[in-house]
Specification:
By secondary structure, the protein is an alpha/beta fold. It is built from five helices and seven strands.
Length: 156
């Protein structure tokens, strides 16, 4: 019986640690995805890792999101409309390393209002210096782990 509890605890720790390491980055933070916001400045102090998500929050009657290549980004070239993300709460998993480019495809939003974002995604690895998102997930993870250890000790 005790060995099954130890196995449960070990499996739970592995599963929870992988969840705690991923970060959801809300593009623009509380500003969301909107015109006339400096997304280059917003992204400059963040470390995007494989396994993280970027989240675009916006009014879907006014904006959309397109994943584009570097040339389309530079020129604000909008892909076909059927490639647009339009939910207003688009979650994009970062599955591979490298540069990723995103623009709003509404007329003049990219070219005249800087509604464009470029990020560099790095390999999975040790978490960067704590940010608010990492602090919350780390605190939650610590609290869950402490609770599990206490419960295991009580019933052992």
């Amino acid at each position: 019986m005790a060995s099954s509890r130890v196995a449960f605890l070990a499996i739970s720790m592995v599963l929870l640690s992988s969840v705690a390491m991923a970060t959801d980055y809300v593009v623009g933070d509380t500003n969301g995805w909107k015109t006339d916001f400096n997304y280059t400045q917003w992204a400059q102090d963040k470390v995007f890792r494989v396994g993280d998500n970027i989240v675009f929050n916006y009014d879907n009657t006014k904006h959309n999101v397109f994943k584009v290549n570097g040339t389309q980004f530079k020129d604000c070239t909008v892909p076909p409309e059927n490639e647009a993300l339009t939910s207003g709460k688009d979650v994009i998993p970062l599955k591979s390393e490298g540069r990723k480019w995103y623009i709003c495809g509404k007329p003049n939003h990219c070219s005249d209002h800087q509604m464009k974002l470029v990020i560099n995604v790095v390999a999975e690895g040790p978490a960067p210096a704590p940010s608010v998102a990492h602090s919350v997930s780390s605190s939650l993870f610590g609290a869950i782990m402490a609770s599990m250890v206490a419960i295991t000790a009580i019933f052992a």
